[in-house]
Amino acid sequence: xxxxxxxTLDNGLRVIVHEDLTSPMAVLNVLYNVGxxxxxxxxxGFAHLFEHLMFSxxxxxxxxxxxxxxxxxxxxxxxxxxxxxxxxTVPAQNIETGFWLESDRMLGLAFSENGLxxxxxxxxxxxxxxYLNQPYxxxxxxxxxxxxxxxxxxxxxIGKEISHIENAVMDDVRAFFNKHYSPVNAILVxxxxxxxxxxxxxxxxxxxxxPSGTLYERNIPQEPKQTDARRLDVYADxxxxxxxxxxxxxxRNDKNYHSADLVSDILGRGKSSRLYDKLVKEQxxxxxxxxxxxxxxxxxxxxxQGKLNVGVDLETANRAIEEINAEFMATxxxxxxxxxxxxxAETSLVFSEIELLNRAMMLAFCKxxxxxxxxxxxxxxxxxxxxxxxxEQARTVLDPNNCSTLYYHAxxxxxxxxxxAVEKIKEA
Amino acid sequence: xxDRSLAPAIHEFENFSLxxxxxxxxxxxxxxxxxxNSTQPVLRFEIVFPAGKWFEKVKGxxxxxxxxxxxxxxxxxxKQIADILDFYGASLECNQGFDYATLTLYCLSxxxxxxxxxxxxxxxxxxxxxxxxxxxxxxxxxxxSVERKKPAYLxxxxxxxxxxxxxxxxxxxxxxxxxxxxxxxxxxxxxTSQFRISTAEIFACGDLNPxxxxxxxxxxxxxxxxxxxxxIPKHEIxxxxxxxxxxxPGSLQAAIRYGKTFPLINHPDYIKLSILTKTLGxxxxxxxxxxxxxxxxxxxxxxxxLSPRKHSTLFFIGTEVNAAKAGETVxxxxxxxxxxxxxxxxxxxxxxxxxxxxxxxxxxxxxVFDQMDRYKHLILYNLPANYFTSYFATIRSTSNEDxxxxxxxxxxEPFNIVTAGA
Lengths: 428, 422
What we know:
The complex is a heterodimer of chains A (428) and B (422). By secondary structure, chain A is an alpha+beta fold. Chain A has 2 domains: 5-206, CATH 3.30.830.10; 230-427, Cytochrome Bc1 Complex, Chain A, domain 1, CATH 3.30.830.10. In chain A, 44% of the residues lie in helices and 18% in strands. Chain A contains 16 helices and 11 strands. In chain A, a hairpin with a 5-residue loop joins strand 1 (5-8) and strand 2 (14-19). In chain A, helix 3 packs parallel to helix 8, helix 10 (274-282) crosses helix 11 (314-331) and helix 11 (314-331) runs antiparallel to helix 15. The N and C termini of chain A lie far apart (56 Å). The mean pLDDT of chain A is 95. With 422 residues, chain B is of the alpha+beta class. Helices cover 42% and strands 19% of the residues of chain B. Chain B contains 15 helices and 11 strands. A 6-stranded mixed sheet of chain B has the order 1-2-6-3-5-4. Chain B has a 5-stranded mixed sheet with strand order 7-11-8-10-9, sandwiched between helices. In chain B, a hairpin with a 4-residue loop joins strand 4 (91-96) and strand 5. Chain B is globular, with a radius of gyration of 24 Å. Chains A and B meet through helix 2, strand 5, helix 3, helix 4 and helix 10 of A and helix 2, strand 5, helix 4, helix 6 and helix 10 of B. Chain A: It comes from Adhaeribacter terrigena. Chain A: This is Insulinase family protein.
């Protein structure tokens, strides 16, 4: 049970306080209700680039990082398709420095031209490092537009292409700030060794005077139901063939979400899962395989991904997965298998509550979803899944017509080399 | 009216103090270290063996023995083991490194006594099945072929090879020759000589209770041989070239590794060197990050770190930069090292570094797992029980003159530099 209190400032900022007096630390987590789904298709990657600019000085404070480091603190941020989330951890005595810094950049930025120019370069290097210059790094750049044809989930948070980042200008930055970065569009979580009274006082003092801003109304096109299987073939200089299958599934808040989540666990969580046992161990088709869900706020994806053993053909591998799915849809699961995935889910939940920062992030996310107390309902929702609800979700989600498959072909040159290597091992 | 240009007052904060641990020596010779904290109903149970790469007679023995341990016992298949662990939502892994191999069980505390017999069975009666060995070798070879497509992996492999020598255990990476040559008998030998309970340290932390301690103290783990001492082999360093370029045609970035060996963790200069390294590249506001990322935009990130091992410490700078800027980056790294040798670190910067180090230490000592890791560090590196007290005292007392002198003593040629890129 995670205890918390919540209140809303006059300017509309929602605040949640989670006291944990056993920790010497305090955490501030500021969630802004904006992600890459809120970008224009011609300016993708912008929410994330903007996140970088939040560290390039605010209206009254030239450097964000230095004053925080000086008081023993540390911070970071991430951008997802749904949200942009900023967090800092600091020895609790110095939590006010955190309030000072976070509130000033909610009030306004320095909008430094030099900052923008440098961060464009930094983000381009990030793009190369994580998506273009890594084996299989571009998978999501290819998969998203295959699975989503209309919804902005069709581009990756890093952006569709480097040119979108190159083309970002200061006017875009100002407009984005005015539209999304204001008290009414944010959720503040104060956690750790700070009393509710102190958190309230500091929230009023530092965030209270910020103009509330305009509530952002999201109006983005919904993805129509997929009715035919989709396929994309990609050829790349990688050593192993790889297969990615994604299926549309319910949104994070949907009553069927947890059943669909457990469908992915049955298929591909851990070494006892069906896909791993059958395809890695028994049939030896895959080098590795797993299944998971994206957990996005709008209807998301269940993902099956695996790398193939050398010499195995992608069509064969795909058929093998389809067969396992078909058997699942035909016969369902045993009570024991259901207990297993529930136990796994319960353990994950309990372990996820160990870190203070994690609790703060989850509270903010649950609040955005509608109710901070959902953090304490997760376990019950998992336990409420039945064999029937799970089977129903398996039949709906794993329908082959609901699937987009990416056949990631190893280019012959690279593949030969691995075959040689594997031959060598067999001979030795 | 609130003056937002003024920072709030800075408050001093306490140092870390390690919570009380309890130690017991078992009849079989193993030491158990307990750290109790029942905030969450979870438990971590680790058995640490002197079974890292340092102890290998045959290359790859440490890795393959650790991984194969979980792939079957006399009476259970790999699948049966996985079924039991997954059924209870537990995780059991054996991970190895340069010096040690560690078998780690994470579970909800209420399942611990049910799962402990499985741990015993895995350690006492591993089957090392031929079929699983062949599969594991194939998977490993394929995974390495993927890793070798990553500039950072190649850079680190060549960098450590040039520092320690191709056959030295502290050299990163594994090659196909190693995988091709290793035999099941090598695995069995390594298991028999290194995975011995009489030489192990056991760490149990989390939601402990008397039943759990009793189960641990009744562990029926056996040694297959009766020698009591651990034989610590010696390995000679055989340095390679100082500067190497690894060609990766078409690579959009170049991975750089730049560094040398530093004194061992128990050396009197070590803590001060860690401050110097932090200043150079150990946090977001470090000199390298400010220069290479925040000023020039050549990279997404650059860091300097100390990687302590039992018999050597590696100091190195790592980054992946715009392929066209690799040469310029190396020049800038040289400048930053020179600046630390020639100029005193400004007082305000040093204060920031010190507070950052202590704050970061506190925030990474927050959970019972973190705290046990801190304690484990003392045990495995033979550091004194009051180590953290002297650590913080040294951090607080080190002056910028001290650091300048150390920079001149340690940031000296030769450095090893590897660039992997187009």
